[in-house]
Amino acid sequence: MSGTLLGLAPHTDSLARLASTPFLAQLKERDLAKNKIWSATLLDGETGILSIGGTIAKEFEEAKIRGEIELKHLGDPLVTTDWVDEQVNAKLTFLIPPDASWDKHFKWTEVQGAAGWWTALMKGVWINGAKILKNQPVIFDINTPFILAPPIAARRFYESIGGTKRLPPPYDNFFAFPCLNRANIALEIGGWNFPTMHGEGTSADALYGPAGGRFSLGKMADGTGYCVGSVVETRMGLKEQGMDSGMKNMWVLGEPFFRGLGVVFDVDGGRVGVRTY
């Protein structure tokens, strides 16, 4: 994160805006948070969940299991609320044992790079099952509305999707692709491929989302058959005045990355964890 959200960026004395104790440290000192962690996930284009001091992994799994059981036995007169609760608790205990550490349910990558930012190494970018980029430095920032990629990486990314084209100036940071070309895109973090921009999306995406699936920002124009991709070329750190910013060749994993994923930030551990919701 860039630090604008409740001061939850990694704390460094040299970059701190206030002399007070960091927010998460204050919560832990007052026993209001067991761990100095926080997590974020976006449910759709408008709503999301921010958890301070914990994650929603257990609550999510419980809701998912309960929904599956109730749907499977819908209309069965022999099924009671107590029976459903027993089934839910049994399956939840198997998936998330009570004595298991909270961090076992995430894939982790260590924070590295510029101080004061949640930066890490993305081991790979996969398109339709092929690894087209590897070892890309990234910043996690939910405040950014796109996924930003440096020029060489952006070109390589779109060259791997058939029929793409760069938009003309002044929108030449954006690329368009055939809306019916549902590319399956996964980002490799913590040794796991996360289908954060899977072309097919969910049934809700099909009904309410933009044409082109989760990877799309929407159609270029009606009748064109082309959609604008959510991976946008960035030129940060390329100009002379930005050479020392540390942003050259850096990806920014913004809002599209957080959709459908649980992303947890461990302050003491200096790491970022990701899991699918």
TrEMBL record:
Domain Peptidase A1 as annotated: residue spans: 1-275
Record SUPFAM superfamilies: Acid proteases
Protein name (Swiss-Prot/TrEMBL): Peptidase A1 domain-containing protein
InterPro entries associated with the record: PEPTIDASE_A1, Peptidase_aspartic_dom_sf
